[in-house]
Task: inverse folding
């Protein structure tokens, strides 16, 4: 008799304040799309760039 088990993998992604604000305004899916565009992965990178940082107050 074979017993199947489900395994779930979870990831924590530290967010900048601007990213958290963006999530609140645009939703989780939009933030994840933005993070994917800048190459955020499951590997912790303490020096990663802020995906929602305002450049010269334009965005």
Result:
């Amino acid at each position: 008799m074979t017993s199947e088990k489900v395994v779930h993998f979870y990831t924590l992604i530290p967010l900048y304040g601007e990213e958290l604000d963006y999530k609140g305004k645009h939703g989780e899916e939009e933030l994840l799309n933005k993070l994917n565009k800048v190459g955020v992965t499951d590997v912790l990178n303490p020096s990663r760039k802020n995906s929602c940082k305002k450049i010269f107050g334009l965005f």
About this structure: The longest helix spans residues 17-26. The mean pLDDT is 89. Helices lie at 17-26, 28-37. Residues 53 and 59 are 8 Å apart (CA to CA).
